[in-house]
């Protein structure tokens, strides 16, 4: 990697800008437009057509819309022109394609920083991480970027998204159902997990770009809050004003679900493994890096996250 002081991240290209987490990253960057020289997105013609209003809104905010195919090298090279920082927010199904995006960035005359699509579990948390099935493609991406001779990188490691974990969708894998006033807790009351809300992912990526020295060539371990299962449950009960019905999925049950999901090839497999990693403490660190990018006092609290979960679930009931 280059040894000199890192250049500023001023001309940004976002790939996956309208996806699940990409839209939060893009929104946070756009809210800080004055601090950057250029914000652009590389998106497909299908997205331009299917998300026309979203694209039009970005244009109005001064975002450059570059239409192209992320799997076409010529389109990517063209998109990299006059860009110094690439922020990838591609989905898990195309994670490995970032290897080519990284190669082209390393060969670019202008790109000097690459943010690969991490925004989740630390895939190098411990020696055991190398064997976890959901980590394999991201590990390939990290290996590729570390081989680059001109490209700096930042891994924004956020842990699980609070928005998804504090919802009802995961059922036996841990859930909080506002309508039914029911919760399924993994393990026991004392299991502790670090969470980041998706809007905070956007804030944290933005701050990482604004602090290029502090975030250079490292896994930036950041979060919104850390809480036990019981603390989350109690906050839901407090804010809904009622006692909830609680059941538990033991670690043994979770491991059985995980094993069966991988054996049958169901989409639940990845989620089950990640949930087991989190329940085993795979999101906990001695200290966070929020302070390195001046993010201590701008992230959501447990109270904020639960309030948003209640708001979203209540909205869906109407």
Automatic annotation (TrEMBL):
Coiled coil: none annotated. The keyword Oxidoreductase applies. Residues 10-257 form the NmrA-like domain. It comes from the Eukaryota. The keyword Magnesium does not apply. InterPro entries: NAD(P)-bd_dom_sf, NmrA-like, NmrA/Isoflavone_reductase-like. It comes from Exophiala sideris. It holds the Pfam family NmrA. This is NmrA-like domain-containing protein.
């Amino acid at each position: 990697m280059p040894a000199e002081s890192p250049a500023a991240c001023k001309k940004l290209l976002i790939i996956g800008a309208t996806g699940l987490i990409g839209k939060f990253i893009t929104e946070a960057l756009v809210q800080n437009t004055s601090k950057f020289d250029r914000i652009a997105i590389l998106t497909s013609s299908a997205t331009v057509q299917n998300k026309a209003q979203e694209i039009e809104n970005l244009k109005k905010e001064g975002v450059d819309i570059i239409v192209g195919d992320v799997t076409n090298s010529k389109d990517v090279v063209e998109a990299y022109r006059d860009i110094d920082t690439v922020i990838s927010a591609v989905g898990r199904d195309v994670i490995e394609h970032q290897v080519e995006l990284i190669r082209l960035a390393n060969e670019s005359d202008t790109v000097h920083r690459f943010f690969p699509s991490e925004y989740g579990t630390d895939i190098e948390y411990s020696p055991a991480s190398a064997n976890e099935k959901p980590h394999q493609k991201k590990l390939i991406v990290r290996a590729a970027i570390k081989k680059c001779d001109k490209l700096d990188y930042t891994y924004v490691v956020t842990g699980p998204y609070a928005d998804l974990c504090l919802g009802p969708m995961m059922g036996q894998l841990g859930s909080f159902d506002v309508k039914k006033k029911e919760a399924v807790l993994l393990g026991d009351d004392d299991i502790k997990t670090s969470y980041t809300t998706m809007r905070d992912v956007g804030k944290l990526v933005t701050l990482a770009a604004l602090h290029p020295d502090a975030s250079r060539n490292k896994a930036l371990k950041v979060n919104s809050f850390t809480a036990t299962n019981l603390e989350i449950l109690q906050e839901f009960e407090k804010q809904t004003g009622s006692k909830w019905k609680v059941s538990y999925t033991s670690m043994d049950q979770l491991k059985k679900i995980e094993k069966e999901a991988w054996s049958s090839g169901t989409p639940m497999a990845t989620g089950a493994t990640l949930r087991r990693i989190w329940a085993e403490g795979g999101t906990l660190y001695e200290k966070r890096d929020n302070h390195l990018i001046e993010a201590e006092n701008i992230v959501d609290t447990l109270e904020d996250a639960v309030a948003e979960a209640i708001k979203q679930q209540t909205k869906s009931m109407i």
